[in-house]
Task: structure prediction
Amino acid sequence: MLKKNVKASLILENGKVFTGKAFGYIKETVGEVVFATNMTGYQETLTDPSYAGQIVVMTFPLIGNYGINLEDMESRKPFLRGFVVREKCDMPNNWRCEMDIDGFLKQNKVMGLEGIDTRALTRVLRDNGTMRGIITTRANDLTESQIKQKFNTYTNKHAVEEVTIKEKYVINGIGTHFAVLDCGIKQGILRELSKKGCKLTVFPAFATAEEILAVKPDALFLANGPGNPEDIPTVVENVKKIIETGLPILGICLGNQIVSLALGCKTKRLKFGHHGGNHPVKDTQTGRVYITSQNHEFVVCDLPEDVEASFININDNSIEGIRHKTKPIYTVQFHPEASPGPLDVQFLFDRFIKITEGVRNNVKG
Result:
């Protein structure tokens, strides 16, 4: 058993090293290093499946002050590779607290690193872009060739396979029936749809179009998940088949990217991604700006003539949502459920339901 205050380092691809103390489950780990700007909601960040395969750096300096509780889990477990903070709180104070962050990471076998200058690390990532990193307790013992080999053998191509469910399940409701494709969906999204009375049939990510259509849903709903959408061409092809049926299709985050690829758009990688709860987006129809929660490395680009941007990021002008000009297809890149994050765009769930009900009523009429 390793003792407390074990020295550990984060080694980046560009050679920079940040040294602090290990916590959580102390075992060497490799992943893409990204930073998240949330001031609260670290538990939701830890358990968001979209971070699968990544080492997450929290820019807010104190993490863990209200502890961890099982009610706020966004997935069955954390899927990230590492968690980096300036200072972790060892004595959380909240009536809902069930354990501290150190114990939670130990329980879920996630390596933690504290005591480094996370603001300086964030500046490195902003200037150089997302890069791979190693958290290790033996930085002085690793040779350059060993470090290079660890970076070269890292891959995140199978992240969706890792996070998706194995069997479909149903959340009963008396309202709109959504077939939900689970590519790493947050529980907050399912909770919001369920609160509005929707029936949800949740499928594994690689369910076929025929399996999805067999339950006779009112719409297909694709939500968030990890990795590069181009790594899951089977999912994109299944969505193409469903588009041809005229079924309404709605999407969030990775779901936005999958639907966009199925419509003939392209995707590209951002320099350092959008992660956090303070990203401004503009509605292209009304001009209104909303503050949103986001977590993605890739964005949609190069839209075909029959697809238009519905939201634009104010900071970098990237596309934050699309709609089809003639088909009932509407997706956004950000997170309306706001877990964690602002509540500005929760109305989009009602919009999703209204779009679906409109199509269903027209068919009946």
